[in-house]
Amino acid sequence: MVQGVGFRPFVHGLAVRHRLTGFVRNEGWGVVVEAEGGPEALEAFAAAVAGEAPALARVESVRTSRVAARGDAAFAIAASEGEGDAFSALVPADAATCDDCLRELFDPADRRHRHPFITCTQCGPRFTIVRDVPYDRPQTTMAQFTMCAACRAEYDDPADRRFHAEAIACPQCGPRLDLALEEAVALLRAGAIVAVKGLGGWHLACDAASDEAVARLRTRKHRDAKPFAVMTARPQALVEGPLELLGALERPIVLLDRRAGAPVCVAVAPDASPRGGMLPDTPLHPLQAADRDRPPGLPRARPLRRADRDR
Ligand SMILES: [Zn+2]
Ligand SMILES: [Zn+2]
Description:
By secondary structure, the chain is an alpha/beta fold. Among the domains are: 7-77, Alpha-Beta Plaits (2-Layer Sandwich), CATH 3.30.70; 181-296 and 304-310, Alpha-Beta Complex (DHBP synthase). Helix content is 24%, strand content 13%. It has 8 helices and 9 strands. The strands form 3 sheets. A 4-stranded mixed beta sheet has the order 6-9-8-7, with no helix packed on it. A 3-stranded mixed beta sheet has the order 2-1-3, covered by helices on one side. Strand 4 and strand 5 (201-205) form a beta hairpin. Residues 98, 100-101, 119-120, 122-123 line the site of one zinc ion.
């Protein structure tokens, strides 16, 4: 699993570190690297390709062979070869918003402040947006959004954490919400059910503290008693016990025991304890949570701190 996980920038950085020239390129079935340099540097480089790979990558095997030297002057990220055994490469799973992106999301000075589609090479949609491999921008549903100059500069800069982040976007050039966030929050507050398009599908959202809203969702879903999962940015207020699993990149739904006095109505899980809980998995969800919890009259969007997620 080497596409869409920042693998080519990683290889590029590694090659520069070992003073190698050549190129790295996505192909349908994996990644091809040609590297040129001294024998010791090449050996260390080959070992590091698997040993130091990015967290989201998975290297199943590294095969090496000797080729004629090309005398390249630098190490480059080459354009993808369109051909290849198209579906044998693994397309990475979607990953929940990373801490760096969350920090920018709530930073009023950042150009992606409150941008609900913030993402980087280490987080965001992949499987959800890919149409074909290799996983490159033109092969994703993001192809229709032309990068602005600022995004293009980040995408092209090997030192930037969005170097070749295929889903890169910003408020100037990226997707927009169909319904203003404030409006969606107001609807949730009023007891409505809101369909939120997220990673891999839709969430039907309503106020978990409202008996009336949850009852309406049960009626519409024809789901009499089966527990609903609760999404929260502050799980410590709702549940007992260890929360480590909640923070996993996959944002799993975890079975948890309810904390006494938690603001979740009985109808969410009428006869069941433990119940399912999950942390937000897209930037949109923490924005909603921040807006929803904002007491009227106070400034919008209380920053979601790293500690909030770790506890
Ligand atoms: Zn990120
Ligand atoms: Zn942009």
